[in-house]
Predict the structure.
Amino acid sequence: MTVEQIWTLVVTCIVSAGGVGGIIIAAIKFSSNLIAERLTKKYDLKLNKEMELYRKNVESKKLISKALFDKEYEIYLTFNMDFGKLYNDIQTYVAFQKDPGSIKSTIKLLECDMDKCLRDFLNGDVITEGSVIKLENRIGAEIMDLRNQLGYSGAFIPHENWLLLQKACNACHKYMQTKESEDHKLIDVSMWEMQSGLRTYLEQLSVIEGEK
């Protein structure tokens, strides 16, 4: 094919495409379609990834009705507040056990200056055997109160959460029976397990209206 024949063929193609402008428009349209196709694939991929993350997040949640959630939360909050009081009383009791010399018997009180002892006693600076006994009784009452809460709450919370509450209560009870330092350490361990376990459980919940 000669140069003239090739040029004639090119001119024929340009004319059939609507001239040079037609070729430019066709090129732009082709490029636009190509870009649009690539953008569509890109955002489709991104959307699919986001939808997959959303699906996994939804599937990881545990659905719970608002009525049941409110009841559960009330149980956990009340137990933790009362357990905190018990924990603080036990810490005070442990301090007394580590320093028995700070506890004054009735005879020791009679041996000291009465005015000073009375003043110190009223200010709370004197720890008597009687005050330690009162503390022991209060701790015992607090443990019994927590056991009553456990008996009431068993039907309203998941069993694994109930076991966490029971373990913390049992640790306090065991220490008051043995007064051993190792058993005292178990109180901190069980309290951490209870609080971290409940926090993880609550974070997995998705509260919905109505009953489930």
